[in-house]
Amino acid sequence: MDPDRLTLFTNPQSRGRIARWMLEEIAAPYETVVLEYGTTMKAPEYLAINPMGKVPAIRHGNTAVTEAAAICAYLADAFPRSGLAPDPNSRLRGPYYRWLFFAAGPVEAAASNKALGFSVPPGRERMMGYGTYADVMDALEAAISQGDYLLGEQFSAADVYLGSHLGFGMQFGTIERRPAFEAYWAKVSARPAAVRARQIDDALTATPSPKA
User: Fold this and answer.
1) Do residues 100 and 187 both lie within one domain?
2) pLDDT band at 4 (very low <50, low <70, confident <90, very high)
3) Which CATH number fits the domain that encloses residue 40?
4) Which residue blocks in 82-191 are alpha helix, DSSP H?
5) Neighbour count for residue 118 (Cβ, 10 Å)
6) Distance CA 9, CA 51 (A)
7) Residues 7-62: pLDDT tens digits?
8) What is this structure's pTM?
9) How many Å apart are CA 109 and CA 132, to the nearest integer?
10) How distant is the alpha carbon of residue 52 from its chain centre?
């Protein structure tokens, strides 16, 4: 197998949009395999790549990567010329990892629970990794209000991932429409790679992409 061959396994109505945006940011050629829920997504061929039978996933040569946050982090390191991750020796790796995993952990969990109508019972906040929904929203607003991007002036893979959560969350009501969130999403979603990614996925589905 070609060690440089990149393949995206996705569905345009999924978190695969995050991986698509990241792939457009690194500007490396890649192939797309569109999978359908309940059929090809659960087929043995794809389960060999992701036993969870979910998208997105990528294959880079013989290396398979699942989970949208991991895909963003992997691609940023595999294609360093894109400048989407701080140098390994840079102290900016701290906030880079911090906010990437904050989005993959507390933000994802809090938004999902809100979508399901679940609220943490009073006094049980310490049992939850994110505490309360309000705690997460406040921390998120503080993170994106420190500069142009999560790392200040440097756009990174963490902005791709967290920005995607903000865009989808505000569209579907799982994340509040705070002015800071809307301003940040308007800025990151206007990037040429983000626009290209939306156009590609919108062409594959009649469902409109999130708007600021």
Assistant:
1) yes
2) confident
3) 3.40.30.10
4) 93-102, 108-115, 133-144, 157-172, 179-189
5) 11
6) 13
7) 999 999 999 999 999 999 999 999 999 999 999 999 999 999 999 999 999 999 99
8) 0.93
9) 10
10) 18
| Residue at token pair 């070609």 | 2
How far does CA 188 lie from the centroid of its chain? Answer: 13
- Domain limits at 132? 93-191
CA distances from 130 to 18, 85, 101, 110, 137 (A): 22, 25, 12, 7, 10
Kindly list the distances between the CA atom of residue 2 and the CA atoms of 10, 11, 56, 121, in Å, as whole numbers in the listed order: 21, 24, 21, 52
The residue assigned the tokens 């569905």 is 11
Q: Are 185 and 21 in contact (CB under 8 A)?
A: no
Domains in the chain: how many in total?
A: 2
- CA dist 164 → 41, 89, 100, 101, 109 (Å): 22, 27, 12, 14, 15
What are the φ and ψ backbone dihedral angles of 129, each rounded to 5 degrees? -65, -20
| Phi, psi dihedral angles at 198 (to 5 degrees) | -65, -40
CA angle 92, 96, 102 (to 5 degrees): 145
The 10 Å Cβ neighbour count of residue 208 is: 9
> Average of pLDDT values for 53-72?
97
- List the CATH number of the domain containing 121: 1.20.1050.10
CA 150 to chain centroid, in Å, comes to 14
170-189 per-position pLDDT tens digit? 999 999 999 999 999 999 99
Task: Dihedral sign for Cα 83, 182, 107, 37, please.
Answer: negative
Judge whether 193 and 21 are in contact, CB under 8 Å: yes
Maximum CA extent, the chain = 54
